[in-house]
């Protein structure tokens, strides 16, 4: 139904775009999002993070842990992938720069059934950050601080928009609650992320994610095989994933072992593994989806309402 509405010719498409851009919910959420972007940036800069340029084309990108179509362009006889996340670029750049972040546009051609999830755009932005010699616990603390600062800023700056959207926003009590992945699954079943989100009034951390549920680059506990030193944050009220991140594997032999366990090849990640072979230092990081953050703050049914030119899976639009 939503798809029927969105699939149309160019003229209809343009009209749809103009309609979208005059929807007061869209205009309000864009204003809120501008505040969120500014606040997150300032929070990170104040803590010594450097903003670096996004990379959009590269021979190396995130393999992700779920299937998406994998687009590339051919340049100078080589394949360059459209960025799915800057995970490896972060891990490489941070070796020289210490603490970095990127307002990173990502392309993930999710399958068409994600059209009506309310949470997926195939082009979106994450504020993606990484810091050297930092633990997951320090990253959790940083995330809570910068999220609360952004919520406080929105409450102060966007009262008109919040009133229109009938949303109340304030910082959450810290530390946020946390539950391990396995405990969450045992308590709520396979659909635990959605259930946990629906029944919560504050954000909840899901920590210690099993190895098969994540990409090879998140670090395994040295003394707990099969469990990773990583985390996801879940927005309350059913809005689901807010961010994901963790500590990274940095030892060459561990990285190769993890690639092998995923049935992937070193060749696929050569641009990264060559560097790891020479030696890199441990780092941690995470990425916060900007549109999903905005959707939660504004209480919107679909993340498309947070973007002036939204790309929903399966639909071509301006
Ligand atoms: N940004 C995520 C991280 O830092 C990676 C991703 O987007 N897949 O772990």
Please describe what this structure looks like.
This protein has 318 residues and is of the alpha+beta class. It has one domain: Bira Bifunctional Protein, Domain 2 (BirA Bifunctional Protein, domain 2). The protein is built from 11 helices and 11 strands. It has helices spanning 2-6, 10-21, 24-46, 87-97, 136-157, 159-165, 181-188, 192-199, 252-261, 270-278, 290-298; strands spanning 50-51, 57-58, 72-75, 78-82, 99-107, 123-132, 177-180, 204-207, 230-235, 240-247, 283-289. The chain has an 8-stranded mixed beta sheet with strand order 1-5-6-11-10-9-8-7. A 3-stranded antiparallel beta sheet has the order 2-4-3, with no helix packed on it. Strand 9 and strand 10 form a beta hairpin. Helix 3 (24-46) packs across helix 5 (136-157), helix 3 crosses helix 6 and helix 3 (24-46) crosses helix 11. It is globular, with a radius of gyration of 20 Å. The two termini are 20 Å apart. The model has no long low-confidence stretch (mean pLDDT 95). Asparagine is lined by residues 62, 85, 87, 126, 128, 244-245, 285-287.
Largest sheet: 8 strands, mixed
Instruction: Give the amount of beta strand, in percent.
Output: 15-25%
* Cα Rg: 20 Å
Q: Let me know the CATH homologous superfamily.
A: Bira Bifunctional Protein, Domain 2
Q: Unreliable segments (pLDDT under 50, ≥5 consecutive)?
A: none
What's the order of the H and E elements?
A: HHHEEEEHEEHHEHHEEEHHEH
* Spatial strand arrangement across the major sheet: 1-5-6-11-10-9-8-7
The CATH class name reads Alpha Beta
Structural class estimated from helices and strands: alpha+beta
Global shape: globular
- The first-to-last residue Cα distance is 20 Å
Number of helices: 11
The beta-strand count equals 11
CATH architecture tag? 2-Layer Sandwich
Question: What is the CATH third-level topology name?
Answer: BirA Bifunctional Protein, domain 2
* Tally of discrete structural domains: 1
- Which hetero compounds are present in the coordinates? asparagine
